[in-house]
Design a protein that fits this description.
Blueprint: H1 16-36, H2 45-56, E1 63-66, H3 84-90, E2 98-101, E3 115-119, H4 124-130, H5 141-145, E4 150-152, H6 153-164, E5 170-173, H7 186-197, E6 202-205, H8 207-215, H9 219-242, H10 249-262, E7 267-268, E8 273-276, E9 297-301, E10 304-306, E11 309-310, E12 314-318, H11 325-344, H12 359-368, E13 410-413, E14 416-419, E15 424-427, E16 430-434, E17 439-441, H13 450-470
Parallel strand pairs: 3-4, 5-6
Antiparallel strand pairs: 1-2, 2-3, 7-10, 8-9, 9-12, 10-11, 13-16, 14-15, 16-17
Helix pairs in contact: 9-10, 9-13, 11-12
Length: 471
């Protein structure tokens, strides 16, 4: 069966009750299909509405944002995922949408809807190829989206913005910029459109206000992150059990991705990193082409995404199940640095590289004073990246390194040492919720102790041997 609805064909006259019943049945089926296509869970509409209201109270002009158009990539493997800031404010994960938020009404008075969601017009022919999409003409669309006003993007958005230009001299949007993890050229397209539609209006950047809000996670966001973290822990445990010389890096990654998908993850939070031997010292290694050899350490930096929220977990394990003395030495230094940072992790501390509240400095100083390279030099310079970052809708989520930690933030702590001369890289990364009294290690279920890791791998190796003897 194709799963598509069969058209109702008339065979003579249908009475009014029959037509009404069949129409209702068709509508119910369409709604069911639409919901079945929604793989993600989402927060209640009220949460997104509260975010928009909080943002509206911080500005003196309209906020105008576009969601992704669905044409950001030409690759046949492309799967649509909404622009993060747009999703954070709307919970809408379909292409071609727009958002308008008016500044909060002065004195608390309201003269009509203060926010509008713009959606593409209904297109039945396109839906034959791409599936059901929400449109302004859908019955109950306001209740479903959580917006009192839903209009058509292509016919109403421009005229609405043009009319507002008569009242407001400035608009807020996300101004374009070029950087590795930025939204260019999507943002440039929005700005170019605004300059065409309202050429006299001044444009202001709303990025900082949204980013500050995104740093503090709601209970729903924390729940989604916990799901992503739990799936990531499961996949790392499977990788520890699977690991042995002779496998390829991509085979290990494939098993981890499989665990994520079976558990309900819609994607990975980032391209899986599985680096063995010389590849263990490459921070964002993604070729996954090396055959794993005995004596290698394997860095596995792999995290699931669940309902749009990304985990970020790394473990370093010995390919043959047992660390060499040198590998264990470096591993324990990294683990000690992580434990030192975790001991100090609480509200008021930060990731800044300077000042007396820096967990980054704590980890660096630990590494710098607890070991030497092959030439007798301290190991501090081999810790070549920051200690951590925020996670959320992006694996490197909104958050400045020098902003003090606050309850509700979710961050990683990931010290590492990379010794190219020894083909030896070690990174240990965990996901942590900042609480009122300190922190909670959300990935605690995944062992960090080298003895525990070796035990898991030894038990799995024994089981493989016994299974092979029975065959």
């Amino acid at each position: 069966m194709s799963g598509r609805l069969r058209p109702i064909r008339s065979r003579g006259l249908l009475n009014s009750a029959t037509r009404t019943f069949r129409g209702l049945l068709c509508f119910v089926c369409l709604v069911s299909i639409a919901r079945a296509q929604e793989r993600r869970e989402r927060e209640p509409n009220s949460v997104y509405a509260e975010r928009r209201a909080k943002l509206a109270a911080q500005v003196d002009g309209p906020i105008i944002l576009w969601g992704f158009a669905g044409r950001e990539e030409v690759s046949q493997t492309y799967i649509f995922a909404q622009e993060e800031n747009f999703y954070y404010l709307t919970g809408h994960n379909e292409e071609g949408a727009g958002l308008l938020i008016l500044p909060a009404a002065k004195g608390g008075s309201a003269d009509g809807p203060r926010e509008t969601l713009f959606l593409p017009a209904k297109n039945p022919e396109k839906e034959k190829w791409n599936g059901f999409r929400m449109s302004p003409s859908d019955p109950g669309i306001e209740a479903r989206t959580g917006f009192a006003m839903v209009k058509q993007f292509d016919s109403d958005f421009r005229s609405t913005v043009e009319n507002l230009a008569k009242t407001f001299p400035a608009y807020y949007t996300i101004l374009p910029y070029r950087k590795e993890l930025g939204g260019y050229p999507h943002e440039k397209g929005v700005v170019d459109w605004l300059q065409l539609v309202a050429p006299q209006a001044k444009l202001k950047d709303i990025r900082a206000q949204i980013g500050a809000m995104r740093q503090i996670k709601s209970p729903g966001e924390i729940a989604f992150l916990k799901e992503a973290i739990d799936l990531s822990v499961d996949s790392h445990l499977e990788a520890m059990k699977l690991m042995r010389p002779g496998l390829y890096e991509y085979q290990v990654a494939a098993k981890m991705v499989e665990v994520h998908a079976w558990g309900g993850s819609e994607a990975e939070g980032y391209a899986p990193i599985v680096g063995a031997g010389p590849n263990s010292v490459v921070l964002h290694y993604d070729k996954l082409s090396r055959k794993i050899e005995g004596g290698d350490v394997v860095v596995m930096d792999v995290g699931a995404q669940y309902s749009g929220y990304a985990a970020d977990i790394t473990r370093t394990i010995p390919a043959n199940g047992k660390f060499t003395p040198r590998q264990r030495e470096i591993y324990e230094i990294v683990l000690g640095a992580q434990n030192a940072a975790l001991a100090a992790l609480k509200p008021g501390m930060d990731f800044c590289s300077k000042g007396n509240k820096s967990v980054q400095k704590i980890a660096y100083n630990y590494i710098d004073t607890h070991g030497k390279d092959l030439h007798g030099k301290s190991l501090g310079p081999y810790f070549i990246h920051g200690l951590g970052h925020h996670i959320g809708l992006n694996v490197h989520d909104a958050g400045d390194h020098c902003v003090p930690f606050q309850p509700g933030m979710v961050v990683t702590v990931e010290p590492g040492i990379y010794l190219p001369e020894e083909n030896l890289g070690v990174r240990i990364e965990d996901d942590i919720l900042i609480t009122e009294s300190g922190h909670k290690l959300l990935s605690e279920r995944l062992p960090r102790d080298p003895d525990e890791i070796e035990k898991i791998m030894a038990v799995a190796a024994k089981q493989r041997t016994e299974a092979g003897q029975k065959e």
